[in-house]
Amino acid sequence: MHQLSLVGTIPHSQYVQTIATLQAFTGQLRPQPISTYTLVCKPNHVFKPKFEPGKVNQIEQYYMRCITTWSCSFDLAKPVLKDDELFSGLLFDANSPEKNWTLQISDIPIAGKKQQVCAQTIYETTVVHTHTNVREQDVVEVKEEGRKGSIVATPKNESFLQMLSDLGYSVYNQYWCQGVRFFSGDVVIELTKLFIRDDDYQGDKIRLKLLDESNTFQVRVYVNVKKASNVDAVTQATKDLVKLQEYLKNLIKLTIPDRMKMDSRIQKG
Fold first, then answer.
1. Structural domains of the chain in order of their starting residue, each with its CATH number
2. Whole-structure pTM value
3. Gap between the Cα atoms of 117 and 56, Å rounded
4. FRET pair for 49, CA 20 to 30 Å: which of 41, 81, 200, 210?
5. H-type helices in the chain, by residue range?
6. What three-state secondary structure class fits 234?
7. Can you tell me whether residue 200 is helix, strand or coil?
8. For residues 87-102, average pLDDT
9. What residues form DSSP beta bridges with 150?
10. pLDDT at residue 159 greater than cutoff 90
């Protein structure tokens, strides 16, 4: 799919006002909750082409996001404090082993000085996976140079991690997302907070902490278009996003994100 988007942030103190504004704009009194858990995966074997005179190599490798849901319950209207006991629950539950995972690879956004919105091609597929023979205590260690800490509970045998390994990928990082989602026609509006694992916690459970301790909400508005070649759909989606940008300008500064920070290609050093 082809995704057009804008991003921004709001301080926690503006959350209630922002929700009320979006309710009025969309007519949606109850926003859809967002609770996602994401594994960031890296190819096990980085392809390093042999450069030869006159030969152009177009092969690229990308980090892959694997996204599923997680169970949590806390009031987004209240700030998350440093001492709050926030846990992710079981990552792989033997009593309820079936999970839907969305595997997603994103191309670098289109460049251009006249771009009004971020335009990016995304490839994704969803699989249903059944976890068996899970041992919640085991962890995968981060092996990347200069990084440390545990990543994710390791199930054995027919596990999702084994499936990733069969695909040629291993876990590089992880994060949790909690927030709400509004809809206005084809426009999706998301307000979220991101969490990472608290590796200083010594208990048996997986304790989470805010990635941004200021309690800032990340705002993302986007429209998915089936094909980038559908000029009419892309033009209409751009107009819808610019209209929302103007409507919310006194509340949220929506801008085009830095395309280089959205580059998920593997660097072949």
1. 2-47+59-132+156-262 (2.40.320.10)
2. 0.85
3. 31
4. 41
5. 15-26, 160-167, 231-247
6. helix
7. coil
8. 73
9. 141
10. no
